[in-house]
Design a protein that fits this description.
heterodimer, A: mainly alpha, 3-stranded mixed beta sheet, 5 helices, B: alpha/beta, two-stranded parallel sheet, 5 strands, globular
Chain lengths: 184, 142
């Protein structure tokens, strides 16, 4: 059984969201919606317990999204993108990324998102992958003790980019064909 | 979906998509009727999205991943019925991975069928469905 959706705080959140007008332009962030979400503990839901989250699994989160969408489809959509980024961080083998970012995300001090079209699969098997990682001054190697940064990249679209110091886009390391987590 | 759940069978999604895809799908389904709580329909292991595992159709590895994941909860490959309206990119790799397959030809939209593949004994689907209501007698013998 989904524990999150059965909480009174969650039910109140959905009811309240349904009564708040959603921003109707692409450049307006749903401030009130995400304040309510934070108050209801929404930042913790899919973060692993060892980083302070609730550790909800995919099936539970799907129920959460479905219920949340009945109150605010926009909020549910943005949360899926944020949580996809959180999931990528949580499953990363890069311990620095996890320890640096997950607690802040859990507490709502930071935000993250993913770049659509390069989540995982797009053109990764071509001779020239769409997104290629390259080291820069603040990350001069690709070791698991560092956080690679992208100099240049192109993705088709990305939600919440202006709000997100962390955007996770799988990309290819030059020479070694494997996916890494990149932070913009 | 409700019938399948009430008959104690598991169901899931094996789909190319990102994290919002399932939400959109379930929201659309909810508009057609009342869905039971999702924990009654799915287990985490039965929700397989390309964005989560880094593989997309028709990757053979994607279907092998699905078979392995379902085996981990006690479901053998031959106990899986994979339903799709796309033959070459969906049902053929599913069959190659050991699943049973059913081609859904309920509507033209999305239907992708290669006649030569349809006649190939090694690739053709196990069943042909013209309507999803045909699933109940197929699964439950009713």
């Amino acid at each position: 059984m989904s524990l999150i959706v059965s909480h009174d705080a969650f039910q109140l959140l959905v009811r309240t969201l349904s009564e708040i007008p959603e921003p109707d332009t692409v450049d307006r962030w749903p401030v009130a919606q995400f304040e309510l979400l934070t108050e209801a503990g929404g930042n913790r839901w899919n973060i692993p317990r060892e980083f302070g989250g609730d550790g909800a699994d995919d099936a539970e989160m799907l129920e959460v999204y479905r219920e949340l969408a009945s109150g605010s489809l926009l909020t549910a959509f943005i949360l899926t993108q944020r949580n996809a980024a959180c999931q990528r961080i949580a499953t990363s083998t890069n311990e620095v990324i996890k320890e640096r970012l997950l607690p802040a995300l859990c507490e709502g001090r930071s935000f993250a998102t993913v770049g659509i079209s390069h989540l995982t699969t797009s053109r990764q098997h071509l001779n020239a992958p769409a997104v290629v990682a390259s080291a820069d001054r603040s990350s001069d190697d690709f070791s698991k003790k560092s956080i690679p940064l992208m100099k240049t990249f192109m993705v088709i679209w990305m939600s919440s980019a202006k709000r997100s110091p962390s955007s996770f886009i799988p990309a290819f390391r030059p020479l070694k064909h494997e996916l890494v987590q990149l932070m913009r | 979906m409700t019938d399948i759940a009430s008959n104690q069978l598991l169901q899931g999604f094996l789909s190319d998509g990102q994290s919002f895809t399932l939400v959109q799908t379930l929201r659309a389904l909810s508009m057609q009727g009342t869905l039971p709580p999702l924990y009654e329909l799915f287990r985490p292991q039965t929700l397989i999205l390309s964005s989560s595992i880094g593989l997309k159709k028709p990757s053979r590895s994607l279907f092998t991943f699905a078979v392995d994941q379902l085996r981990s909860i006690g479901i053998g490959a031959q106990e899986i019925l994979h339903i799709s309206c796309r033959l070459t990119t969906d049902l053929v790799p599913a069959r190659t991975a050991g699943m049973k397959t059913a081609l859904l030809v309920a509507e033209k939209s999305g239907l992708q069928v290669d006649a030569a593949v349809l006649k190939d004994p090694a690739k053709k689907p196990d069943r042909l469905l013209t309507d999803l209501s045909q699933l109940s007698p197929l699964l439950f013998g009713g």
